[in-house]
Amino acid sequence: MTQPNLYELPAAADAPANRWCGGSLGGDNETCVTTIPLKGAVDAFAVGDSKPEGHGSQLRMSGAELDTFAIEWARSRGLSL
Fold this sequence. Notes:
By secondary structure, the chain is of the alpha+beta class.
């Protein structure tokens, strides 16, 4: 089954954004990544930035793409999962 174009799908209006915060570079609200499920796709998300400069900018990624990113990012930083 082919994944739809994730940039053509709306974020699920009834789903709250998950906030992944840390780093304390100006307070928690300044250092968060948000994820919102995409309506019409299985396991796909809009990934956003909580910084005012990043407002409205989003990446669209499947769950598998996010998983791969997270694992490879952690490895490149010498972090354990």
